[in-house]
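Re-run with default settings, no changes from the original entry. Doing this only to confirm the output is reproducible before filing.
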Amino acid sequence: MGEDVSEPVDALVIGGGPAGATAAVLLARAGWCVTLVERKRFPRRKVCGEYMSATTLPLLERLGVAEAFLESAGPPVCEVGLYAGQSELRAKLPRPASAASGWGRALSRERLDTLLVSQAEHAGVRVLQPFAAIGMRREREAWACRVRDEETDVVHDIAADVVLAAHGSWETGTLPTQPSRSPAKADDLFAFKAHFRGSALPDGLMPLLAFPGGYGGMVQCDDGRVSLSCCVRRDVLVRLRQDGGSEAGEAVLGHIAESCLGVRRALARAKRDGRWLAAGPIRPGVRLRSEEGVFRIGNAAGEAHPVIAEGISMAMQGAWLACEKLQKWKREGGKRAMLGCVAGQYADGWRRSFSARLQASRVVAQWAMRSGTVRAVVPLLRMFPSLLTLGARLSGKAARPRLLRQHLR
């Protein structure tokens, strides 16, 4: 590598997913010297529902990738649905607040993440792939961050005034912002994702899959494929593996198909494209507290249950909120003593923007995993499908958070 990896920077971004790449682009365009480290070399697949709501399209425009996103993404998603037992319900997705925003769409993570990181490089961000962040320590007025080249095992130290931790929340690690390994619990949720070709899923429909011990979703993404993602309890997963003897992803799919007529019909003639991906246990909740000068963004800051399909939107919108606060801090002199106030303002804005989505996701997730409660509610949903529309609205599908509306017009 011809450049000095250890050159001091204004901001080090750890993780090249939607949150990390968004932050890197925004800060670099504001004149910051930014390095982004990502431990995988892109393109790479990732466990994710892959849907992005229309509330984030103005941010994609700000980043300069909206046109490329719309050219590659799947068809507009204008209906929400429910596949549970023998029921196949459909309802209109709430229309976004701005007609110019159009409808949400899905794009595979191997394409979305590559698109965003490429834009970061275009903005002047130094992107290091595959590099893993393996340590952080305070050193005078900066953070000394240790990163390792995953191909050569060479270790470098990077001094950064500010660190944005966008490494997700599912994998343990040595950083103070990464989770420690916790004891296994029966209700731990593990996530699975696969693509399928030849699916009969109706155009523009994104159904919720409700089945005993888990939940999931399906959506048409790029290249004529359907993305199926789901979460399943640990105890259910153990039983399925014991009963079926097949690989975990296929065992979970068999359980979902047995429980949901809509899935059986949608995938009756479909062929899986690529292998199953798995990750977890997932960690819904809020994790905004961190040390001075370190900002958690994306899933590292907090995440809703994937049941509401808002993960990518929350990650990118949350990164935007953090960058707005940091840019204002820099314009006002960039005094290190003020970083604690900046972190508090960011945390307050994050909670005001996303708390309702987290609460809605908990309610829907607990309902979807219990077959008895699903059966009790389905007749009501069949009579009043607008309740599905209302649920989608409460999960954040129709309006951007107020703090974003003030700037992203």
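The chain has a mean pLDDT of 91. The chain has twelve helices and 18 strands.
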